[in-house]
Structures are given as structure tokens and as C-alpha cells.
Amino acid sequence: MGRAFVYVILGGGVAAGYAALEFSNRGVSHGELCIISEESVAPYERPALSKGYLLPEGIELVLGTRVISADVRRKTLLTAAGETISYKILIVATGARALKLEEFGVNGSDAENVCYLRDLTDANRLVDVMHSCSGGNAVVIGGGYIGMECAASLVINKINVTMVFPEAQCMPRLFTPKIASFYEDYYKSKGVEFVKGTALSSFDMDADGKVVAVNLRDGKRLLVDMVVVGIGIRPNTSLFEGQLTLEKGGIKVNEKMQSSNSSVYAVGDVAAFPVKLFGETRRLEHVDSARKCARHAVAAIMEPEKSGEFDYVPFFYSRIFALSWQFYGDNVGEVVHFGDFSGNTFGAYWVNKGHLVGSFLEGGTKEEYAAIAMVTGLKPAIEDLAELESRGLSYAMAVSRKPPPPSQITNVGDSGPSLVLEKPVYPWHATAGVILAGSIAAFAYWYGRRRRRW
């Protein structure tokens, strides 16, 4: 037994949802489109934390279903239940899975008070554990996006937090030491403790199988009531290994999000696509990229002659406590810091091979964030770093008010080639004090109902 569709989306995250919405907006016929997802719910807007499902009617949902094999030559997918689903066009939106402690030689992931955060099931478990640990002690393993944002939420919920990571600073893939120092000091002012330069060695468990202490490689032992693990993700590519070209850990696609097989497209965390601004292939782990590349893929499928190239400026953002930052571009080359690091507004530019290639801003206004997005997309030549430091944010503001040459217009928004900055979707962020880049709706929806705006 089997079913056949014109379009199949494999995956249930943000990229899958936005691809389905784009198909619907472009008039896909009833019964032509199917979504297959291991999750038991339809795709939902994870970082917006609205618990809002993304899909209109008329789309076949095959939920709670695991695909165990794919044959891209025959254009078929085989589910764990033994059903064969065929397609004409496949969009792979399988996302990524959270790395588990066992992959680093540490057992204990199955303990009831050890939490990850990647999907709805993880979120429900995390909420339950947090609810039972108010006033207790939590150890957060990892100093990246998930670690930093979960730590903020734990503090808001009156849980004592210690962050543990092997690097010398938080967010090492993005922050400079100076920027990291600001956020670490802010977290310390909220009661968060940092244990850096070491890693988890083992857990101590009680008779009920709960973790009661975290043992570190440097010999420290931390008593805990719960543990949150955020040590990275790995793209879900296993179904297509040996069938599609892989690069940067993901499925390599062209400027139309099309893989090495013309009937298969990839979007979201699993896609490695050409970033025109830098002239190389990148795989980006952020919701903004997932949304935009999903829409672009569907446009390329439905109207290939009109879709053009996917011209995207990498974009990351976060809101934690009363802080809010945005980053555009690439953090390579020489760094020029600007602003008042003892105050509320500061930032940095990255200059590589004589051109501005990256911009970071904390505490900006809508206009200021739009300005750093624009200047990064323009990639202007920089001759004097000292002058750039002196001018700081005013440099981006001045450039943004000049009409750019048509050839330099870069996509930093949602409506194709333009310099209009898309406003990030934050409806619950300020209420909850958390946006989890890889997080899900139930987690912060619970907080949004229980916490006041601060």
C-alpha cells in the first residue's frame, strides 16, 4: 500500500511549515502536498513562542511517522509502518538533532531530570522538571545559544544556575572576548555562576535514577536538582547519505535550494547553500535562514523562471533578560568595537580583506538594526579602522541613508532583493525573557503565562 503526491515535505519544523505556507500561497491544489513528520503535531512557529500552528487546510499531514529509508532515484520514501510514499518533488526539512552526552562518553541522558531542548517532547519534559525544581539548583552544560537562553529562563523561574563549558567564554562561535565579557558580567549580576575551561565527566545518581551531582573534569562536584544540556546539533542527513552530495555537514544545494538530484530540495538546518555575499557554501542554524530559504525553494519550484538566486545575509538575534542583540554577516577578519560597553548600546564591525563583512549591535532601535543590516549587505570598502571605530554606529546610520547602487542590493528581508529589514518575530520574547533559537512553543508559552514583563 502507498500514497502518491506531487510535493512532499519531509520534516515538521519551521522550515517545513514555511515551505507549506508558501505552497499554499502560490495556489497548490488540494491533495497535491503532503508533510511527513515524526512529531505528533503540525509544524509550529518555534521562536515566536506563540504555540501557533502554521498550516492552512488542504495539506495532507502524516504525523507521528518515521521515514526509515529514501530512494531518490525512484522518488519514494518508506515509513516505519511499511507504507511507501512517492513524490515528484521532495523538500527535505529534516532539521537537526541535539547532540547527546553519550556521544562524548558520558552516560545519563535518560535520567528524568536531565533535559535537552529541540522539539515539543523535549519542551514538555523541560517544563515539568523546571516546575518541580523552583528554588533548586540547575547546571547548564554548554555556553552557546541554548545554554545562554535556557540559563536566563531558569533564573527567571527562581532556579540557581551554574553554567559549565570548556571554552574560555560564552558564545565562542560568535562573540568576541569583549562582547562575551559583557554578557557574562550581566548574567553574574543575575546570580548565574560560570565554570569555564572544563567539561562534564560523569553524573552521580540516587536510587531513583535522578542526577544529584555533576562531576567535572577539573575535579569539581556540583550538587543539582536538574541538568540542561545544550552542546550542539547534528543535521539529520542519514536518509540521503550516498544519494545526495553532502557538504559542511548538510545537504549541498544550489542557489535555488536544489540538491544534486533535481527532484530533491533541502531547506533549514540541514541545507548547505551558497552565500553570495561571501562566495562560499554555508550551513546556517537559525530560524531566519530557515524561513527564507524555505520560501525561496518553493518559489524556485513553482516559478523557476522568476525565482532568481537565494541572496541571503546571515542573521542571528537573541533576547535575554532586558537585553537584545542582532548580528549580520560574518565574524571573520579584524574586529572594531564601538559604543559604551558599560551602558546599554554597543557593538562591533568585522572587516576582512578591506571590506566590512559583519556587524553586531546590542540595545539598538529598529532603525539602528536596519542600518547595520544594510551596511553589512553592501559590504563597503573600509580604509581606516580607527575612523570606523571613532564613528561607530553613526557610520552604519550614515551609509543606510544613502541610496545604494543597484548592483549592491542584497536580500536582508523577506520580499526578495531589497534592503528592507524584516522585523524579527518576538511576540512572547519580551514577556518571557527568552527566545530559544532552537526552542519550541510550549516551553516559553508556559513562561509567558506566568511571568510579567520586566
Automatic annotation (TrEMBL):
Cofactor: FAD
Cellular component GO terms, alphabetical: cytoplasm
InterPro entries noted in UniProt: FAD-oxidoreductase/Apoptosis, FAD/NAD-bd_sf, FAD/NAD-binding_dom, FAD/NAD-linked_Rdtase_dimer_sf, MDHAR3-like_C
Transmembrane segments: 426-448
Pfam families recorded: MDHAR3-like_C, Pyr_redox_2
Top enzyme class: oxidoreductase
Every FAD/NAD(P)-binding domain range: 7-292
All copies of domain Monodehydroascorbate reductase 3-like C-terminal, residue ranges: 313-396
PANTHER family according to UniProt: APOPTOSIS-INDUCING FACTOR 1, RIESKE DOMAIN-CONTAINING PROTEIN-RELATED
Stated name of the protein: monodehydroascorbate reductase (NADH)
Name of the gene this protein is made from: LOC111445613
